[in-house]
Write a structure and sequence with these properties.
8-stranded parallel sheet; alpha/beta; 9 helices; 220 residues
């Protein structure tokens, strides 16, 4: 199977104000996976939107760009209260992992040193691979790799990690052209996210046209 596109209703790592309206307009596109960030949509709106997505059979994703334990655990609680399928992001903590296991949420934490917002990834490739293996040994569902936000050789990082680790890995952030998509087709992660690039019209067309272009390209 080809890598899954996760459509993120986000721009610069924050949820857009009109996320619900955009989903309503383009819900019939080819995308199965939809999500957004923990900021800046009010909780009640998040809950309603996730519920609506799930009522249409979509797989729902909350990505939390928060690096301390309290913020990450709060993100996990939001995911549960919203009935979200997958929690991506947060720095790994046992408390978040335990919460997700107990509440049947698929947890995919960041790996590597992630800082700032929009996020930046740093750390050696060997360290990131070791970290990935450690978290998987603790029972996380998969991993959130900010591949194209890496401050080193991004392609080498992704290639080596995907060769070394057999688990669901999502390549998140800054995927904005077909060259990057073609690379992902070759290394074959479980999924990848696109958010800002759709809002910036990097794939030329209406929001749903861009989604379908990306899906069709990945299916070739």
């Amino acid at each position: 199977m080809c890598p899954n596109l996760i459509v993120m209703l986000t721009h610069n790592d924050c949820t857009v104000d009109n996320a619900a309206e955009i989903f309503e307009l383009y819900k019939k596109s080819k995308a199965q996976f939809w999500g957004f960030k923990e900021k800046n949509l009010p909780f009640k709106q998040m809950k309603v939107l996730f519920s609506y997505m799930k009522s249409l059979g979509k797989t729902t994703v909350l990505e939390v760009v928060d690096y301390d334990e309290i913020g990450g655990l709060n993100g996990a609680k939001i995911a549960f209260k919203c009935g979200c399928d997958i929690l991506m992001g947060t720095n790994y903590y046992d408390s978040i992992n335990d919460y997700c296991k107990n509440h049947h949420i698929k947890y995919m934490p960041f790996i590597g040193k992630v800082t700032k917002r929009p996020s930046i990834l740093s750390g050696s490739i060997d360290e990131i691979i070791d970290e990935a293996k450690l978290y998987l040994s603790k029972g996380v569902y998969g991993l959130d790799l900010l591949g194209y936000r890496y401050d080193g050789d991004a392609n080498l990082l992704m290639k080596r990690l995907l060769e070394a680790v057999q688990a669901p890995i999502c390549i998140a952030g800054s995927i904005d052209n077909y060259k990057k998509l073609n690379f992902l087709k070759n290394v074959h992660p479980w999924a990848f996210t696109i958010g800002s690039a759709f809002f910036d019209n990097k794939f030329n067309g209406n929001f749903d046209e861009q989604i379908d272009k990306v899906c069709n390209f990945m299916e070739k």
